[in-house]
Amino acid sequence: xxxxxxxxxxxxxxxxxxxxxxxxxxxxxxxxxxxxxxxxxxxxxxxxxxxxxxxxxxxxxxxxxxxxxxxxxxxxxxxxxxxxxxxxxxxxxxxxxxxxxxxxxxxxxxxxxxxxxx
Length: 118
Prior knowledge:
The protein has a domain at 77-118. It is 51% helix and 8% strand. It is built from 4 helices and 2 strands, in the order αααβαβ. The chain has helices at residues 4-16, 31-43, 51-73, 92-102, and strands at 78-82, 104-108. Strands 1-2 form a two-stranded parallel ribbon. The radius of gyration is 16 Å and the shape is globular. The relative contact order is 0.10.
């Protein structure tokens, strides 16, 4: 597992040059950290119309998209539109298993963004 200084350097390299990660080795997922992040997300106040929330979410979407494009271009993962009825995965565990075992991620296409109802 990389230390904080190494991760910060990787992040800075990516921001300045997304192609800098081409030779970066795969990193194990820290399930405890991932679960803590998910718990924090679930307990956060839902405020989609707040201006700061909208600006932060746009930055999040932009960065997530850049990272996804980088992974696809490097051949690390295949992102496949889900064309069948229903949801591509019954739960997040099934999605994670598909990504880990088959290096693919089905995405649900929508005409417009969905609002997460809390």
